Amino acid sequence: MLELSIDTSTRYASVCLSEKGQAIWEINWHSSQNHTIELTPAIASLFQKADVAPKQLNSIFLALGPGGFSALRVGMSVAKGMAEALNIPILGIGTLEIEAMPFSSSGLPIVSVVEMGKSDIAWGVYEGSKKGLTCLRGEEVSAPEKVIATAPKGSLICGEGAKRLLPFACSSNGKNSTIFHSEGQTRHASCLAQLGYIRFSDFPIDNTIPMEPLYLKTPNITPPKPKGRRV
Fold it and tell me: Where in the chain is the domain with CATH 3.30.420.40?
């Protein structure tokens, strides 16, 4: 059983080819232009490196967000198009879960965070389980100081937005948490592959159910300026 995992939630993107959830080949990159230009060549390169043809795929796993408005829609459009063309199921997994997956064996509450613009953080709380992860608190958007104040004591805080929480780590609640932060990529499609395969094995996938990106926050799109009157 071969799976393709696609994550274009943020500027840090990742695709992975896996067999029963175990990565065969993975490509990660920082999007310097936009995902529209870069995603399809990355997937083609993935198939070439792994010496696999698209028709050999059995399913597609997709990061649903939260994340960038355009970035998420690019990943979803490509994933849906491939799933329809190949007549295979597609399964969506939340981006915060993907961030939390590497720490699922920590034994601690995992606070997974992703930046949402200049002032807000998308976050959720998880714990490791035999099924990969169990959600303790659903996804929401808050200011960084609220995340620290609300996070369970003794939490492990991780994800692409973790660095934003460092200034608040000296608070009474922050001192009881461990913050893992990185200047580079924190999220990998190989973790999406693991989670996707676990869910795929447990629940049947119905492609007739509409799948939409998880934004959590209204996209910040500036309306076009009205054109001036011609004289």
Answer: 2-95+186-202, 96-179
- Residues 87-109: pLDDT tens digits? 999 999 999 999 999 999 999 99
Q: What is the pLDDT of residues 162-187, one digit of tens each?
A: 999 988 877 655 567 888 877 789 99
Upper half-sphere CA count for residue 168 (Cβ side, 13 Å)? 16
CA distances from 229 to 149, 225, 226 (A): 52, 12, 9
Question: In CATH, what is the architecture of 2-95+186-202?
Answer: 2-Layer Sandwich (3.30)
Domain at 96-179, CATH class: alpha beta
The model's pTM is 0.90
